[in-house]
């Protein structure tokens, strides 16, 4: 079973993650988080908030609206530039991003010579596609079909085209030699290897919506019908312009990033919090929406997702240093919560990859089962955002260093000479630059689950997912597998602060009133004193099976109450990662869990006395 399949099965079975609206057939790219998923997601975002806001004196939080007026996103460049290139496969009608699509694969060991194989999903589709190729896309080409594979004979490859071999038996009289020249731009349909594609075109990723009690479709119909009545407006372009004009007053967007909500509030936050001196940051966690061309890998790429973003406002001359410092800070965060440090890396963006606003960017990438994928971007956005919003609104979004200004004014008063040093004045008042850290919460959760997931045999020895271990350059590990046989089980070695359930509490005999009562008391103390999620495990299975169920969802500690506990008030505490069990006083449990959950590095944690090691 592949690592991803294994995880998704576990997520569904144990209530982390479900396909949304499944009982109505589901909706592609939409996911619901179950009782454990919601806890894990909250814990990841809480840990982010702790380190970005509570642990620092220079960052404050904000929560801004999702529905965004066009002026904001026009100013930020999203209306004109937040696009991906999009291509349609002429055979499958699938839509994909050419920058993520693979190069053409050819078979040069075939008895018929150089072959371009196209894979259809089944034999019937292969027949239909073969017909389409013969009649529309490569008339007269030498083609054969084997099961669900269509084989095209290739004459030669040129820089930007594939020249197919002519079928000597073809009887088409109107054949143009260029019918056998297939344009090739370096990519094919990722699912079929087909080179029969539309030209690539830009596609804006933002979701539009209309704040209007009148259905916008009614307005479109009325405007279109009116436009058709006048010859000067009846062509497609003019009609479209009229429709856009009619809808514009009620047009809004679902925000594609939380960042813009911060930029438009820069001045209000700064005014309301005058103690915030540059450099300072504004953090936000919230939903963002993108009409992604390709949804992939469950919650890795979805149209609706959550972002954890920090916009850190700095003086222009601090930007480089702050960018480097945030890179390090964020990588340390990832290493603290992740177990496999060789599966997390930084990847600096090449110049042509940079977003329209960015003058420098590194991606934090995780080695997912299908290869390296971005989980976070750290960018030096320059003064792009504040300058643009300032230009568009006429409102100065600047920072004034009051101390420098007062000192200059005092000097001027004393000397009677006005100071004109441009550089010195620029240090007094400037448009801040922004260093951004932008992390996808859902992606972070997926990465941290995959990172924590370990399959072990009956002796507790880890069974690696084949192909995924130790190969850092591996980019095709989608099919990494592990054979799930008897005795094989899963342990989610999540950092205790991320674990959805912190303690599993179990009576030795599940229906014994006295044992259950003592368990309830322990559970209540933990809930009330530590405000953590605990689970009473009262199924009538063996304690061992109940421990394993807790391991599977990442519960760091289990507490078992047996008949002796009723006499001596001692309980068994078991640790997930070592399997170690020891007797402790029931009065110690809250302190042990409290200590085990502290925000200290794991290495230090292990050395502490009277703490639980994880
Ligand atoms: N404000 C900058 C910004 O939004 P981004 O690289 O487009 O930058 C930041 O997005 C992060 O948001 C990504 O690293 C990723 O973790 C997450 N993200 C972006 N699009 C996503 C999607 N469609 N589904 C899930 N997460 C997504």
TrEMBL record:
GO BP annotations, alphabetical order: glycyl-tRNA aminoacylation
Highest taxon of source: Eukaryota
PROSITE patterns in the cross-refs: AA_TRNA_LIGASE_II
Matches recorded under InterPro entries: aa-tRNA-synt_IIb, aa-tRNA-synth_II, aa-tRNA-synth_II/BPL/LPL, Anticodon-bd, Anticodon-bd_dom_sf, Gly-tRNA_synthase/POLG2
Pfam families: HGTP_anticodon, tRNA-synt_2b
Keywords attached to this entry: Aminoacyl-tRNA synthetase, ATP-binding, Ligase, Nucleotide-binding
Domain Aminoacyl-transfer RNA synthetases class-II family profile intervals: 253-464
Bilayer-spanning residue ranges: none
SUPFAM superfamilies, A to Z: Class II aaRS ABD-related (SSF52954), Class II aaRS and biotin synthetases (SSF55681)
UniProt key word Repressor: no
GO cellular component: cytoplasm
Cleaved signal peptide residues: none
Descriptive protein name: Aminoacyl-transfer RNA synthetases class-II family profile domain-containing protein
GO molecular function, one term: ATP binding
